[in-house]
Every structure is written in structure tokens, then in C-alpha cells.
Design a protein that fits this description.
- It comes from Actinokineospora guangxiensis.
- By secondary structure, this protein is an alpha/beta fold.
- It has a single domain (about 45-345), classed as TIM Barrel.
- The chain is built from 14 helices and 12 strands.
- The protein has helices at about 25, 35-40, 80-90, 110-120, 140-145, 155-165, 175-185, 215-225, 245-260, 275-280, 295-300, 330-335, 345, 355-360; strands at about 50-55, 95-100, 125-130, 145-150, 190-195, 200, 205-210, 230-235, 270, 300-305, 305-310, 320-325.
- The strands form 2 sheets. A 10-stranded mixed sheet has the order 9-8-5-4-3-2-1-10-11-12. It has a two-stranded antiparallel sheet with strand order 6-7.
- Strand 1 (about 50-55), helix 3 and strand 2 form a beta-alpha-beta unit.
Amino acid sequence: MPAIPLPTPRPLGTAHVDKSLDLVGKLYQRSVHPAARVVADGGRLAAPVVVDLDPTTLCDLACPECISSGVLNTGQFGGDRIAELAGELVAAGVRAVILIGGGEPLMHRSIGTVIRTLHEGGVQLGLVTNGTLIGRYLDELAGMLSWVRVSVDAATADTYDRFRPSRRKSSVFPLVIDNMRRLAERKAGRLGYSFLLMQRFAEDGTVTDSNYGEVYEAGALAKDIGCDYFEMKAMLDADHFTVNQRAEDVDRVEEQLAKLAGLEDDTFTLLGSSNWGAVRAGADPLQVKDYRTCATAELRTTITPNGVFVCPYHRGNPRGLIGDIAGRPFAEMWAAADTTVIDPSADCPFVCARHPTNLAVATLSDGGAVEGLVEDYDPFI
């Protein structure tokens, strides 16, 4: 059989394509590729390669546009159970864990124990956080995480407070920025500044509020803080569909991205966003999928206090539920799980970050040899 060539990443506009975002390329790492081949042939894995772990659904912010509003404040793992779970993920052979969630992961009082257990077990860790509690776990985050991405979505306290209001009486924007500076001084892994483009509209479609004017300023602040990268993403609606923008707004953002590109150097990168690329091109928010099962659901799963789901897109969706680990070990739950409960052709009409991976896995089922597998560099597939 002919050899299968490795894919070539495509650049997105003026932004850099980082290897950490090339999910298809990561399938061709020596220790990951065998798992992808098993899945391509319809097999089950003893454990997923990556777990998205939601320690809690509690959050100390009250963001009006929160994509996880439907699951907020619906519970959290007990301290003993989540500590046990961390050990179970290590024993099962999970390669990487992303601490994320419908809530703020650092709000769980046992999160320090979880981080230490996973790190000591050889599991690589990533964290998506609002940044307010970084100082509480600075030692763990600085020394034990592969990456920390902070959702800021603004460059000034005024804009931050409109889009990411705190439940406290005062703005937490200065606290978040100070926490990021402290982490930047000590970090062993990468630190990212995340900027989600957001707009609010009147009934007639007029834009009433926006953070579009702070893209450049936020990127410059990210570099000043000491972040390794600045990542800008397009707004999604509550059903995960991209929201296409007026031409003048797209141009306004593109001008700032072009200016930001001038700040890139060996220590600071501007990351491309696939969903912004779709918005910039005016692509159809509907993404047709002609396959019935999601291969990535076997390679990566989402554990929440309210059950285990096939992926974050279906977090909280009863149809995406594949198990419950409240009263059973993870390995037992995973062995009995049906990761094919979601039909992408019918249940995932939005533009999905996993779609290119699913297409790539499908090409591996013919058993052909693969040229040029690469050494391991990033298990976060």
C-alpha cells in the first residue's frame, strides 16, 4: 500500500500557526499514532489520550455571554472523590489532562492536590482559567503545568468589567493582570492571553457594545506581561455556531492583527484561530459532516461533576452522556462507555475543532504505512 504523507498546516491570515494548535499534526507523534490507528480500525482504547476535567461548575465571575451558562452552579466533585479520580487517571494511562470547565477550575478546594497527583504521575497538564485565583496556586501552576491560558477578553478594566463582571464589589481586572505577571516571572510552561471577540446587539441589529477595538492593545499588554502567546477567537452563539460579522468589523480586527504581527519575536507569538478564519472568509456557520461517529471522542473525553460526556460541545447534553464516575472508578466507567452516542452528521452541525482530526483518522483505516512519524512533543491532541 502507498505511504500516507504527513499533512501540511495552512496559515490563517496574519497569525502564526502554532504546532500546539495543529491537532492533525499531533496524530503523527510516535506514541500517539498507534492509538489513532486503533480508533481508525474501530477499536477501543484502554483510556483516552486526553481528558478535559471540570472540577467544579462554580465561578466567581458573572459573564453575560458565558458559553457554559447552562451548566453553571450545578455542583462539583467532592474533595475525596476528585483526589481519587486524579489517581485513577494516572493508573489508566491518560497522557494529558486539561483543567477547564463550565466553572472556574481553581475554585475547587482540592485542585492543588489534583495538580500534584497528576504531575507526579507523569500526566501533562493544561489549565484554562479566568486568572483570579492564580496567586493561590502559584507554586503548582509555575512548576507543574505545560501551559496556562487565561481568558481575559479585554485590554482595559472598563471593557473587562462590562464583559467579565465579577461577583465581587470591585473590578478584578487589576488582580488578573498582576497574577499573570507573577506567573510569567516563574513559569516553566507556556502562558497565554485569550481574547474572545464579543459584540452586543439591539433588536434592529445595531451593535451596542463591543470589545473589537481592544485587540491590538490586549496583544501588546500580553507581551508586556510576559505571555508566550496571544490568541484571539471569534464569538460563538449558545449553540456553538460562529457568528458572521460586518465587513467593516472584520477589517477593523484584521488591521489590529496585522499591527500585532509586528510584535512577534522569539518569545511572543500571535496564534491563529480557525473560527476567526471562518468568520473572516464569511464561511457558512453550518459544517456538513458525512461520518456517523466521532473518532476524537475515543481519543479525548470530558469529565464533569454531572457525568462524563463525549466532548465539551456536548457538555450537559443528556444525549452526549457516556458515563458517571460518582460511584465507580474511571477505568470501569470507560470500559463500559459508548463513545458513539453522538452522530456528528446530525448532532454537530456547527464548525467543530475536531472535524479535521476525524477526517485524518478516517484516512488511517486502510492500513497503509506512514512516512515520517515525529518524536513526541505535545500530547494535547
